[in-house]
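testing teh design pipeline on a random one, pls ignore if ur not involved
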C-alpha cells in the first residue's frame, strides 16, 4: 500500500501534537516509511510545503527527506482533468485557484488499488463546487482515503517504533 500525503497531513501534524522539535520519532518514522515506498507525496503537493517558511519547510527540503517523500512519476493530466470535473462542470479561474493542487493528489491515486490518499480534511456533503473537500472528491473518483490518525494506526506508529 502507498499512502499519498496531502500537505495538510504534515502541516497539521507539525502544528499540533507531532511538532518536529517535540516528537522527532514521528518524523523519522515518516522518512522510514517513505524510503520503504509506503508513504509518498506527488511533487505538486510537496511544493505546497516547500514554498513555506518554517521548520517543516526546512525539514522537507533536506535532500534525504525530499528524495524519500517524492512520488517519482509524471502527473497524468487526463486524470487531473477527470478529478476537476467532480468539483463542477464549469470552473472559473478563481475556482481553480481555490481548489489548488488537490486534483494532482487524487489523480495520483486514481486507477491504483494500492494507493490511498491521506488528508486532514473531513468529508462534508454540504460543500459544493470549488469548496468540495478532498474526501468528497476521492469518493466521487473511486479513490480510497484516510485521515492522518488512520495512517498512524494502520502503520502502527509509536514513539519506540524503531526499537521494536
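output:
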Amino acid at each position: 500500500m502507498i499512502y499519498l500525503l496531502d500537505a495538510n497531513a504534515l502541516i497539521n501534524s507539525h502544528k499540533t501534537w507531532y511538532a518536529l522539535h517535540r516528537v522527532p520519532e514521528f518524523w523519522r518514522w515518516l522518512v522510514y516509511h517513505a524510503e520503504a515506498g509506503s508513504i509518498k507525496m506527488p511533487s505538486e503537493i510537496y511544493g505546497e510545503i516547500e514554498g513555506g517558511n518554517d521548520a517543516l519547510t526546512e525539514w522537507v527540503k533536506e535532500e534525504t527527506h525530499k528524495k524519500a517523500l517524492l512520488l517519482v512519476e509524471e502527473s497524468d493530466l487526463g486524470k487531473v482533468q477527470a478529478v476537476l470535473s467532480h468539483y463542477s462542470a464549469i470552473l472559473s479561474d478563481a475556482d481553480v485557484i481555490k481548489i489548488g493542487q488537490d486534483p494532482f493528489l487524487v489523480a495520483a491515486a486514481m486507477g491504483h488499488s494500492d494507493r490511498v490518499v491521506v488528508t486532514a480534511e473531513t468529508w462534508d456533503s454540504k460543500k459544493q463546487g470549488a469548496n468540495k473537500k478532498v474526501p468528497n472528491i476521492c469518493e466521487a473518483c473511486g479513490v480510497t482515503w484516510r485521515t492522518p490518525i488512520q495512517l498512524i494506526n494502520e502503520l502502527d506508529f509509536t514513539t519506540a517504533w524503531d526499537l521494536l
